[in-house]
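User: Can you predict the 3D structure for this chain?
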Amino acid sequence: MSDKNYLSKLSDWSADRASEIAGLDNVQLNEAHLEVLRAARQFYDQYGFSPSMRPLCKTVAEYCGLEKGRSIYLLQLFPDSPAKRVAHYAGLPKPKNCI
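Assistant: Here is the predicted structure, written as structure tokens:
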């Protein structure tokens, strides 16, 4: 997943577009994934940048429930690098501290 694969316009995002992007990684999104993506987009709308892992956990806990705001839950949904994958699928810029 390179930087060029991130959406250039935030307004181009939709759940269908997220599913297309995830499909390129052989990931099939469900409502649990979309719930996290919507929470990340709300974070971006509020703060103007993509959440790294800790802020992502806090945001997901706030918007989706405490049990979903745990890193293990996010790792199950978005293996390897949840913050990076969430930003990618949510149509957000890559988080600054993600390699």
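Residues 3-90 form a domain with the Arc Repressor Mutant, subunit A fold (CATH 1.10.10.370). The first helix runs from residue 15 to 24.
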